[in-house]
Amino acid sequence: MTTLDEVHALTHAGSLLSGSGEIVAPYDLEVTHADAAGFTALPAGILNADREPFEADYARARRVHLINAFGVTLGDSIIGLSALAAIMRRHPHLAFTVYRPARAPRYVQRLYELARHMCDLVDLPVPLASLPCDELRIDIGNQLFWPRFASMPMIDFFLWAMGVAPDGIAAADKRNRWLADVPLPSPRSEPYALFCPDASTPVRSIPAPARARIVARLADETGLPVAGFGAVDHPRYRNIALLCADTDHFLAWIRHARYLVTADTSALHAAAGFDVPTTAFFSTIPASMRARDYADCVAVEMNVPHLQGMHASARPADLDALERAYREFDWRAMPFASVGPRVTLSSA
User: Fold this and answer.
1) Cα(2)–Cα(15) distance, rounded to whole angstroms?
2) Where does 286-329 show beta strands of DSSP type E?
3) What whole-number distance in Å separates Cα of residue 167 and Cα of residue 84?
4) How do residues 99-130 score in pLDDT, each as one tens digit?
5) 133 to each of 63, 64, 130, 136, 137, how far by Cα in Å?
6) Are the CB atoms for 117 and 144 separated by under 8 Å?
7) What is the rounded average pLDDT for all residues in the chain?
8) What pLDDT is recorded for position 187?
9) What is the pLDDT of residue 341?
10) Under a CB-based contact definition with an 8 Å cutoff, are residues 212 and 206 in contact?
11) Fewest beta carbons less than 10 Å away: which of 14, 31, 174, 229?
12) What pLDDT score was predicted for residue 346?
């Protein structure tokens, strides 16, 4: 098997095999600045849909080993676990073991701990030999570098990567409803609307100059005070960031919100799981790629063509263009969720 050089190892569409026979997550190598030379791809006995698409025979399986699933961000993980839950609903006899990057952020790992009723968790690396050859073994590692990750709705991507035809899963089973069964604390608060303007990258976040205007529109529309994550200068706004120091409380504040306005970030996916009506702003990725199945979500796509398909950026020119699109948006036309999903295009 061909040994990968350091660059190709870190961007490989899948997990890695070390010279000592251990399965390794490229992410763990990257964040620890470890030597990434000398690794190979996992052997053909480990299914990898990017290498060769497959149809998994879950009806005959008893235990499924998911290697390096489902990324290292909270939103991706919420959606990936929804794909797992959809398969479990069709095949309730299945048991899953999910192998995770040991260096993934703690708040993301906590989400998987909250989902322990769905799967067993094992930290990578592990010896390849510890995964029984007669059980279903599927690699979903490093999905950011899989071409289909950028061309499919994320829930469909994870289903496809697990050997399931996405069209065979009902839209209702793609809405992250597994979150509704997770025990969470209850915030001590009067009824509130919620504002989540920050994404994992500035180019997908709501620009700071637009935030007070959105808070005012949200408060006027709902008649409620607005809580949110981060500072906004508005008399009807309360910054609750310090009350959300962990994943449990972050999810709890979303769960109990009467309405949510959010950037393209994990709050959107959590709200869908809790049936919280939502307005979501998208700047780089089409709404259909993230919120297609969310019945209680309306989406606003900011019209900045050169940002389309961009996963991350903090370049001043990109952020200036994004801020201009928000400045020119007609806030009187800001949509609010009613019966079903729809998309409003900005005129910028």
Assistant:
1) 14
2) 297-301
3) 15
4) 999 999 999 999 999 999 999 999 999 999 99
5) 11, 11, 9, 8, 8
6) no
7) 94
8) 87
9) 42
10) no
11) 31
12) 55
Place of tokens 């006899």: 93
CA distance 73 to 154: 13
Residues in the chain: 348
Mean pLDDT of 296-324: 94
Q: Which two tokens stand for residue 320?
A: 């200036």
- What domains does the chain contain, in order, with CATH numbers? 3-181 (no CATH), 193-345 (3.40.50.2000)
Residue 50 token pair: 């990017």
Give exposure, 22-34, as e/b (b: 16+ Cβ within 10 Å).
bbbbbbbbbeeee
Q: Are 301 and 288 within 8 A, CB to CB?
A: no
Tell me which residue of 109, 171, 195 sits closest to 159, measured CA to CA: 171
3-state secondary structure of 19: coil
Q: Which of 302, 333, 306 is nearest to 317 (CA)?
A: 306
pLDDT of residue 188: 83
* Residue 281 contacts residue 304 (beta carbons within 8 Å): no
Beta strand 95-101 with 63-67 is parallel
CA 162 – CA 200 distance, rounded (Å): 26
